[in-house]
Every structure is written in structure tokens, then in C-alpha cells.
Amino acid sequence: MDHSGHGMTMDLPPFTLGRGLAWSADPFFLIACLLGLALYGWGVVRLVRRGDKWPVGRTVAFTAGVLSIGLMMCTRLNDYGMVMFSVHMVQHMMISMVSPILILLGAPITLALRALPPAGRGRKGPRELLLMLLHSRYMRIITHPVFTIPLFIASLYGLYFTPLFDFLMGSRVGHVAMMVHFLAVGLVFFWPIMGVDPGPHRPGYLMRMLELFAGMPFHAFFGIALMMASAPMISTFENPPASLGIDALSDQNAAGGIAWAFSEIPSVLVLIALLFQWYASDQRQAKREDRAADRDGDKELEEYNAYLASLHARGN
């Protein structure tokens, strides 16, 4: 028997990690992941061929981010996620919180701007169009915390606690659209906070941390609400297939625990990244000051010493 037109059988065997990781590709996400890796690889090869360097760590991070999406959407985790709330929650948390962070650490926009050739005077090519998009009013709006934080929160409460979730889970197109939405929300939320790629909204490091912590508690509250519920709250998962051998309420409680636990993971990842960026920024600033001192012959120090000498002379 099919489940919601997905071609997924209702008689799935009890979940195990081995069964969950078996190959079962969603065509849309398979093509999207392969295309993303190919375009990124093209950009890196282009830079290397012209003698430029591209950090290996960025390539590793981007690849890991794309593969994490493939792991969620191109294995039987995606099949189990249609009938098990706990597995679905793993998909949601990975695609909305872990995958975007890894992808953003790969600095794909910076790579594109460096790899794409200029179109020439008076013409607009892919590079010019990307720059126009980055500087557009639309981007200023969707990357501003006044927009991103409420969107991040609404993607939980406005989706799961309304009939919209059941509607989207009722078709393959709706399910794919929901997962694309989770990824997009994660990208626009973490993009200004990560600060690796250029963007219209680029706050200081302290403000970035405040933006991060403004959104994370709501994930924890959402998880606690699911864990404390005394009855199934989502119609899609009210009646799991008997072949799974699970209880809907217990599975929902597990989903809540997963949502609560995952709220800590991105906080740690982003904080580590921000601290490294902050340290690197301080190091670059120190080097700039050292170079300026070398050029000026420590002019500021000489002026300060002259000032001290004048004070000494006055005292005598």
C-alpha cells in the first residue's frame, strides 16, 4: 500500500540504522546535490588553474553540507521520515540547522564571485547578476534579523501546529517543498551570523551571537512541548504502520527530544566558527597595524615619546 502517493510502502520493517541508511534517492534532491557539488568543484578547479588558492577546509565543509542533505533525502531515512515523527525530526533538524552551517562555512558565494568571469563593459553576466542580487533591497530584507528570527521560529510553530504540515506531507511535491523551505530558512538565518560570505547585513561579532541565541531557545521550547504532550499532536503521525512496532506518543516524545538536543548543536558549531573568525580578524588587524608602523617608522610611537619628552621638559 502506498503512502501519500510517494511510492513508499506502508509495511516498512521496524526501523534500524542500517535500514534507514539504505539507498532510496529522492530525484529532486539527488540532482540538486550533484549539481551543487559539480558547480562548487568547477569553481575550485578554475581558481587553482589560474594560480589562486582556495582553502581546503572550505571545500570540505561545503561537501559535508551537501552530503548531509543527500544522507537525509537520498536514503530510506526519507521513507521512514514519512511515517515516523522521530526520523522526520532528524531530517528537519539536519537540513535546517546543520547542513546550512556547513554549506555557509564553504563560502559558496565568495567562490562564485572569484571564479565567475566579468562579463565586460556594459554587459551583465552571471557574476554581475549575483552582485546585483547581493546588493538588492530584497536581500537586505530577508537577511535582516527582524525578518530571519521570526521566520526561523514560525517554521516550527506555524508549520507543525497548523494543518499546513499535514497538507504538505500529503504529496511528494509538498514534502520536497517543505524540505527546501527548511534549508532556505536555515541558510538565510545563519548567513549573516556566520559572516563568511559577503552579504547586505553584516553585524559585529557580539550582535551575531545575540542573533544566534535569540532563535535557538524556541527550538528547545518546541522540543519540550512535544515531549510533554499527553496525546499525539500531528495527524500525519497519529497512526504509524503496525509493521513498525512503535507507539505514536512515544515516537512523538522522541521527536521532541531530538528537537531539543539539536538546538545545542548549531549553537556550538557557530560559536566555534565565530571565535575563530574573531581571532583571525584580530590577527589581520594586528598585521595591518604592524605594516603601517613599518611604513611610518613607528610615527605614532615617536609622537608619543616626543609628547612625554615635552611633559618632562615642562616639569623641569
How would you describe what is shown here?
Helix content is 72%, strand content 0%. It is an all-alpha fold and 316 residues long. The model is unreliable at 1-9 (pLDDT under 50). It is built from 15 helices and no strands.
Walk me through the topology.
Elements: H1 17-20, H2 27-49, H3 56-73, H4 77-80, H5 85-105, H6 108-115, H7 126-134, H8 137-142, H9 145-160, H10 164-169, H11 172-194, H12 205-228, H13 248-262, H14 264-296, H15 299-315
Helix pairs in contact: 2-3, 2-6, 3-5, 5-11, 5-13, 5-14, 9-11, 9-12, 11-12, 12-13, 12-14
Question: If you average the pLDDT, what whole number results?
Answer: 86
Oligomer category: single chain
Helix content: over 70%
In DSSP terms (H or I, runs of 4 or more residues), the helix count works out at: 15
Described by strand count, sense and barrel closure, the largest sheet is:
none
Radius of gyration: 25 Å
Sheet-strand content, in percent, reads under 5%
DSSP, total strands: 0
Query: Which regions contain 5 or more consecutive residues with pLDDT less than 50?
Result: 1-9
**What does the overall shape look like?**
globular
Backbone structural class? mainly alpha
Order of helices and strands: HHHHHHHHHHHHHHH
Ends apart, CA distance between termini? 100 Å
